[in-house]
Amino acid sequence: MGLSDFIWPGPKSNISPESDDYRLVPTRTTPLDHPQHPEIITFSNYLRRLAGSRPMADRADINPADILPFLPHLMILDVIDEGADFRVRVFGTGLVSLICEERTGLLASEFGLKSTIYVDLAEIRARWLQLFGRVYNEARPVNFKAPTTSIDRSYMHYHGMFAPLTKGSEEVSQIIGMMIAVRS
Predict the structure, then answer these.
(1) What DSSP string runs through 25-78?
(2) Please, are residues 4 and 104 in contact by the beta-carbon 8 Å criterion?
(3) What residue numbers bound the domain in which 66 lies?
(4) pTM for this one?
(5) What are 31-40's pLDDT values in tens digits?
(6) What are phi and psi of 74, to 5 degrees?
(7) 58: domain CATH number?
(8) How many CB atoms lie within 10 A of CB 181?
(9) Which contacts of 114-122 are long-range, i.e. CB under 8 A and separated by 24 or more positions?
(10) Is the residue at 19 inside a domain?
């Protein structure tokens, strides 16, 4: 699978590849066929059980009490303008500590603006917009691993999984995901 398989495709995108802020750069993100981290495997299986025979789980199916150990590592995003962008509804406290940026309420296109450590803005935005766009466009979970975008954290990489959610319909209206940091 090459970079072209991970570029956010389609007419739904209003982000131009010529834009300085949204250059399509190699994100060093490696798509995985299946999750590799034990906690992400458990969370992925939880979402699969909730979905049952449906293509994806509904947001109302999720009971936070069932996934307490995962809450610090979770992110929930609302789909904006049919996948043109994504707004963070929930950003776990573990992610805030890990990424050094509170992203609750931010659009994915704004990631990195409030970071307290150095990050490559072009890569961070391309990475997340491509990942969320792929989940939205394909309406299926995406598993990945990636190094950090910060030279201050070059000793770490992330394992993650993001999956589509419905909200009372059959349309993808939210994305839920989980990330865990691992020493490289």
Answers:
(1) -----EEESS--SHHHHHHHHHHHHHHTTSSS-BGGG--GGGGGGGGGGEEEEE
(2) no
(3) 26-183
(4) 0.81
(5) 889 999 999 9
(6) -95, 150
(7) 3.30.450.20
(8) 20
(9) 115/150, 117/150, 117/152, 117/153, 118/150, 118/151, 118/152, 119/149, 119/150, 120/25, 120/149, 120/150, 121/21, 122/20, 122/21, 122/22, 122/23, 122/25
(10) no
83 lies in some domain: yes
Distance CA 181, CA 127 (A): 16
Is 171 inside any structural domain?
yes
* Alpha-carbon gap, residue 170 to 180, rounded angstroms: 29
- According to the model, what pLDDT value does residue 112 have? 80
Give the C-alpha distances (Å, rounded to integers) separating 147 from 92, 132, 135.
Answer: 20, 17, 20
Q: Is residue 16 included in any domain, yes or no?
A: no
Lowest mean pLDDT among 12-16, 100-104, 138-142: 12-16
Helix (H, G, I), strand (E, B) or coil at 182: strand
Report the distance separating Cα 164 and Cα 172, nearest Å: 6
Split into its structural domains, the chain has a count of 1
What confidence tens digit (pLDDT) does each residue in 46-86 have? 999 999 999 999 999 999 999 999 999 999 999 999 999 99
Residue 19's Cα: distance from chain center in Å? 22
What's 159's DSSP letter? Answer: E
Residues 6+ apart with CB under 8 A from 96: 102, 103
Nearest Cα to Cα of residue 42 among 76, 68, 75: 68
Strand bridging mode 85-91 / 74-80: antiparallel
